[in-house]
Amino acid sequence: MIILGGDHMAKPMEQYKWHELNVGCVIEEVGNASEYKTGDWRSQKPVVNQDKCIKCGLCWLFCPDAAIEQTEDGRYRWNLDYCKGCGICATECKPGAIKMVEEER
User: Fold this and answer.
1) What pLDDT band is residue 13 in, cutting at 50, 70 and 90?
2) How far is residue 40's CA from residue 82's CA, in Å, rounded to a whole number?
3) In CATH, what number is assigned to the domain containing residue 49?
């Protein structure tokens, strides 16, 4: 069985006609990025040396995936459900507090 969005009801896939199917690779509603955890793509992950971190927020500012959150004490933590391991945070970290390490599976 497959469940389609919109007004479609669930029925076996072979009962659908081609024109009843949603077009693939099209985002039909805005604001749904949080539903898709993309961190599984990562081969490296950031590790922060808190002793070197000066809480400047450059990692947060440059993160293209909004995977970094500020904590109540002004530090930053990574939501690894969304971090793709691009390493931009480590590159932009002026004090060198962020190091990219191989992801362990």
Assistant:
1) confident
2) 8
3) 3.30.70.20
